[in-house]
Amino acid sequence: MSSSDRQDIDRFLNTDGLERTREKEIGQHIGYRYDVNLLPDYARLTPFLRNYMELMGWDDLNWLEDVHMGYEEGRAAVFDRNLNGWITVPPNISLPDNQQDRDMLARELLIKFQMSKRNPLIALNSTHTKG
What we know:
Blueprint lengths: L10 H4 L6 H6 L20 H10 L12 E4 L2 E6 L4 E4 L10 H17 L4 H9 L3
Antiparallel strand pairs: 1-2, 2-3
């Protein structure tokens, strides 16, 4: 490998490190691109996610694999690509000690929010649906 092909190992310390267009749009790294340990550990599925996968007929988490627990303004949050915004975790929910369990919780919260009446897209649909 030539020296021009090597990446600076400190690039994430010296820059914002957001290389891909999608990372720049959401303002954070897409973690599993860099660390295979961020791939879901299916032994840590929540009961809700296990039932959801069974109901959907999925063998894996499909589109949920890149959903991770993040932080917005110092509060635990999950990024909803449909809204292009953060959904903060309610303060009464205690976060697990490890990242895999936090990510499973983030996936569960995202699905539940997307199906809830509090989701702005649900309200938008009911407002514009002809009935």
